[in-house]
Amino acid sequence: MGTKIHKGVKELKNQLDKGKLSRREFIRYASLLGLSAVASTQMAGLILKPTQAHAAAIQRGGIMKIASPVQKVTHLSNLSWISPTNQLRNVVEYLTYTDADNVTHPYLLENWEVSDDLKTWTLNLRQGIKFNNGDDFTADDVVFTMNEWFKEDVGSSMKGMMGTYLDTTGIEKVNSHQVKLHLKMPEIGVPEHLFHYPAMIFNHRTFEGDFIKAPHGTGPYTLQKYLEGETCVIKRRNDYWRKGADGKLLPYLDEVQFIDMGTEMAPMIAGIKSGDIDMIDFGDLGATDAYLALKEDPNVSIYPINTNQTRVVRMRVDLKPWSDNRVRQALKLCQNREKTLGLAFYGEGLIGQDIHVSPKHPEYAPIETPKYDPERAKQLLKEAGYPNGLDVNIAVGNGWTEIIRYAEILKQDAAPAGFNINIQTMPNSQYWEKWTEVDLGITVWSHRPLGTMVLNLAYTADSEGNPVAWNETRWVDKEFSELLTKANATFDIEKRRKIFAKLEKIQQDRGSIGNAFWINTWFITSKKMQGVKAHPSGYSKLDDVWIKS
User: Fold this and answer.
1) Which of 35, 221, 230, 474 can pair with 90 through a Cys bridge, CB separation 3.0 to 4.6 Å?
2) 482: domain CATH number?
3) Domain-terminating residue out of 49, 71, 87
4) pLDDT tens sequence for the chain (549 residues)
5) Helix, strand, or coil here: 342?
């Protein structure tokens, strides 16, 4: 990146020295401003410890088997679930990579530079990288992919997240390995947005809307087979651009097989115990049952990870009765949060506060937790015109046991307020087909390193005022949107938290979701699998995983 250091880094260092910023927060934000991980770590007064396995211990070869839903896939930019990306992120790659500590690094990028006003981002691409069909990776691929994100008929959540500050007119190819983004307004989270899971980079020469038909990526594996509902098989390529700890080209494994075993956890648990599978992919499945069943098994490795994952009770504000905020507030008041966390997730998490900002998000401002109050909820229903109570249906996917339990507990605890809740269970795949359409449901939301990211994805509108692709509740609030735009452009942590205090209060008071808890989660593998790195988003990166014989 040269010697230029963004002026914001100096301000961050000043806050660090004054004790207003933790070292981890400093590293995270300095990295976003283009400072390398090594430089930001040294500036924070820390020593960067090597994380790669010792070369002498690594064994190459072998087949890894993973239990994972194999869902229908065509255009990767419109994916709204994690499991397919866990399969295909090993074939297709991203410009950046956000690690388990929520620090974002260059990946297909060599580095990036950002203007002082946060409105011009220069993306410098790595040279010498090839797609698995032999084509060179260039700026044309980046420009092409970004243009796909903004196509209306694609329906990508990338447009929802980035569309407020970027459109296709702001994407400039400077030369074969440099792209500039000219933003309509300042934005600090660009590097992290580039690792949002539908942000995989296509080969512009071969991609025509269905990746499975032309699976050309820059990743360490090639796609050999993809059968919806059955299996996905990826095999090692011999000319990948990254080297392992042993000095040879990655990946270490010969092949990875993703096997669709449905959504019942018992067969997967039995498969781990018997050695028939090596790992369970929890990207779109609940992990608690497997954790409880396997935590004492000596042949199993469990990698705990703190996350900003949650399950939200989401209400469509464009449909009755949820268009009335009194009804929304009434249902939220029926959440007995401590009870729900204890029974639905065995206490393995944090209490939710009806806001989509986690206590672990760096911008989080402490806010009072609403109390369980069915009497107040009953009064609100009466004021809204439902003195005799209200019958409602709630849609849930049956592959998440904690969601089923959440719905059952809510049904029980909302009855005294006058809610008669009918629980409609369905396969996860069916829920994902209609997750933005049901009037009342419980949706899994995965980890995002910044609070602004999920708020941009789920609670905003596009330039024409239409809810963005992942705004499942259709809730758009003018004051909220204006404050969020301001927060996106603010990298001063204290100022950002003050804005978030207002955002959180608005969402809690008149928003469209309830959330009783935030969850911890786990990566679970057989003991022989080495080099596994647990990621808070549930992402599986398998280039440097190997098998110990």
Assistant:
1) 221
2) 3.10.105.10
3) 49
4) 445 788 888 888 888 888 877 887 788 888 888 888 788 878 877 655 554 556 778 999 999 999 999 999 999 999 988 999 999 999 999 999 999 888 999 999 999 999 999 999 999 999 999 999 999 999 999 999 999 999 999 999 999 899 989 999 999 999 999 999 999 999 999 999 999 999 999 999 999 999 999 999 999 999 999 999 999 999 999 999 999 999 999 999 999 999 999 888 999 999 999 999 999 999 888 888 899 999 999 999 999 888 899 999 999 999 999 999 999 999 999 999 999 999 999 898 999 999 999 999 989 999 999 999 999 999 999 999 999 999 999 999 988 889 999 999 999 999 999 999 999 999 988 998 899 999 999 999 999 988 999 999 999 999 889 999 999 999 999 999 999 999 998 878 889 999 999 999 999 999 999 999 999 889 999 999 999 999 998 999 999 999 998
5) helix
Who's near 284: CB < 8 A, 6+ residues apart?
A: 69, 81, 82, 83, 399, 428, 432, 444
Examine residue 182 and state whether it is found in any structural domain, yes or no: no
Name the domain count of the chain: 2
How far is 188 from 9, CA to CA, in rounded Å?
12
3-state secondary structure of 148: helix
Using the Cα atoms of residue 113, residue 51, residue 223 and residue 303 in order, give the sign of their dihedral.
negative
Q: Is residue 535 part of a domain?
A: no
Domain closes at, from 49, 64, 89: 49
Q: Which of 206, 230, 228 is nearest to 216 (CA)?
A: 206
Q: Does residue 95 sit within a domain?
A: no
Residue 373 sits in which domain range?
307-519
